[in-house]
Amino acid sequence: MLIKGKKLFLLRLIGMFFLFISFSIQFLTILFSVENILSGLVLIILVLPWLIFYLTKKVEIGFLSDHNVEIFLILIIYTFIPIILTILEVIYISEPNLFLTETISLIALLTAWNFSISIYWRKRIIFTISGTISIFLNIISIVNQWNIYIILFISLCSFLVMISLVLILLSEYILKKKNLLVYL
């Protein structure tokens, strides 16, 4: 069976895989680099619901796929509450600005991963913006970091995200030029 453009579609999947690998490496790097247990717990509490939400969207679980917008809004509110508590220093985290930058970068990276191979125009824009935000926040995190190992791992993640963005966007551009991909 011959499918036109299958190599380009495969590049899109490889880009999506690189995004998830980048998320995993970055999440574990940040989790193991926090200085106290509370910071690690806050990181897990902030990022894990997003991961579960996006994974359930991928497998299209009935109840959750019927209420995507509502759950998304609840997650945004849920995420901002600990962020505000951290900013107000109700929750003590050493280097709160760096921690929040890294956490928001992880959520943006998950969002980019979720929308990475969508064929809907609006979701493509969300993919591009969230991937770019993740790279930008990683650069800010690298500049404010002192540990060389964390700098290396976050740099690797940023490089993987850039490769993923280029792979996905370039393959989609070529597919569109060949009329093999149409955005809805």
Write the layout of secondary structure elements.
Blueprint: H1 6-33, H2 37-59, H3 62-66, H4 68-87, H5 96-114, H6 121-143, H7 148-177
Helix pairs in contact: 1-5, 1-7, 2-4, 2-5, 5-6, 6-7
Descriptive overview:
The protein is mainly alpha-helical and 184 residues long. The protein has one domain. The chain is built from seven helices and no strands. Helix 1 runs antiparallel to helix 5, helix 2 runs parallel beside helix 5 and helix 6 runs antiparallel to helix 7.
Task: Write a compact overview of the structure shown.
Helix content is 80%, strand content 0%. By secondary structure, it is mainly alpha-helical. Helix 1 runs antiparallel to helix 5 (96-114), helix 1 (6-33) packs antiparallel against helix 7 (148-177) and helix 5 packs antiparallel against helix 6 (121-143).
Question: What does the average pLDDT come to?
Answer: 84
**Class by alpha and beta content:** mainly alpha
Alpha plus pi helix count? 7
Question: Helical proportion?
Answer: over 70%
Write the H/E string, N to C. Answer: HHHHHHH
Q: Radius of gyration, Cα only, in angstroms?
A: 17 Å
> What overall form do the CA principal axes indicate?
globular
**Spatial separation of the terminal alpha carbons:** 26 Å
Number of domains: 1
List low-confidence stretches: none
Tell me about the biggest sheet? none
Notable features of this structure?
184 residues, 80% helix, 7 helices, mainly alpha
